[in-house]
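Note to self: keep these together.
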Amino acid sequence: MSSTLSIVLGLTFVLLGITAVMLQAWLWGFPMENGHSTAPRLWTRIHRVIGLSFVAIYITMMIFMIPRLWEYQVELPARTVIHAVAAIVIGVLLLTKIAIIRLFPHFMGALPLLGLGLLINTVVLGSLSLPYALRAHNLSGDTLSAQNLERVRGVLSGLPLPEDVDVAALATPERLADGREVLTRKCTVCHDMRTILAKPRSGPGWFNVVVRMAEKPLIMGDPLNDRDLPLATAYLIAITPDIQQSAKVRTKAMRDQAERVAEVTEMPADTNATPDATPDAGKAEALYKARCAQCHELDEVTGHGGNDETGWAKIVRRMVEEEGAELGEDEARTIVRFLAATYKKSA
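Structure:
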């Protein structure tokens, strides 16, 4: 199932579930005469069509979801467990409701509670899956900006991709859309979408992850092939700034608390350097662009404003410790000095 169809079905499922329950609550308020409801026939038929559509979408989604549960090669994340439980509960409630309507009409008084249960589990199911599906599906705005596409090309050019791979062609809207399909159709067979998008990585980091996943055996589903590897890598690199921004929001409170407890003031001392040693400006700038552009738009630094070495050291160390930046001590120190010299703290 394509990511677009999955999102459309998911949104439709949630809307149908809410509409069906609200409509049922309204129709239930009409009095009974001779064992039959006096509710308007038209709206009763509409409610029936909505209910049947809801069931049809549910069956379609379960056909794709159940095999995926058997494919997970690690322990299921808590969000996935709740998602699966909510889906199973919806199925139980639907079967119970159909059984009451068709076979056990003397239990009709339980239908409002069943409807409420369907509403709750449908909303839970949608809220756990749709935000991440929409986030993975998003290919617009800053992701397709000329600056970001140029960043993606630069990062891809430094990866050990096969010689026949056209790096320039990978960093285009069409190929990034192909990479998104690889992610949503193949990677999610074994992985929760939240797990994939939870942590930003550098270009080499994403490439190594994709290669490692391609080497894992699959019992069901289509494995990643040689064509998929550069496509998935390019797409993940393209959306890394968005992932990085989300990670900032998630960790801000934790970071503020940690900084109050133990404030980082400097990078590890370079015992072999003289006090006046400064890195070559050209090499330092190239290193800064190569490493920092893996996850950031470089204009974020300009937006941050100036700082001294102590301030930049705190930021660089946080990138290493909290957000997975792949920097050695010498590289980190060089970048800190370059930033302090280029973006000085205002007096």
